[in-house]
Each structure stands twice: as C-alpha cells, then as structure tokens.
Recover the amino acids of this structure.
C-alpha cells in the first residue's frame, strides 16, 4: 500500500472520469473495500462513484500518491500528466 492513515495524498487516477485527478485528500481510515482507504476531500466536496456528493469516500490505494516530503515533485507531475 502506498498510503497510511493520516497521510495527505494526491488523486492520480480517476474511476469513471478524471474529474478528481489532482485533488488532495486526507486518508482517515481503512475502507472495507479491498486495497482502499476512506478519504476526506480537502476543499469542496466531490462526487462519489454512486453519484452522491460528499466530503468522504473510498479510494483505491493505487489511485493515490502520498504527500510526505520524501517524494520527488517531478515524479508526481509526470504521473498526473500521464493520467
């Protein structure tokens, strides 16, 4: 898993659309979905996969990149550009 509880993370891949790519979330818990986290959006609420709007939701770990200060900024930019 890339993230851990308490991390800020960038959404690097969307589900149905790329609407949330680039948004920052906080990992607040372990999701009951496999390899996923419960995340809280920073800023405005976002649309969930089920079409509802909310501040929290489940996001697969593979769609997130943690922001911890140990990553290279150019790596994150390249990954966002490739999405």
């Amino acid at each position: 898993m890339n993230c851990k509880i308490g991390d800020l993370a960038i959404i690097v891949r969307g589900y149905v659309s790329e609407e949330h790519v680039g948004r920052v979330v906080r990992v607040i818990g372990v999701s009951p979905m496999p390899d996923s986290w419960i995340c809280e959006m920073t800023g405005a609420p976002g649309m969930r996969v089920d079409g509802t709007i909310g501040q929290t939701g489940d996001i697969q770990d593979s769609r997130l990149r943690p922001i911890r200060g140990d990553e290279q900024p150019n790596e994150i930019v390249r990954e966002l550009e490739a999405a």
Summary: Residues 8-82 form one domain. The two ends are 19 Å apart (CA to CA). The chain has a mean pLDDT of 85.
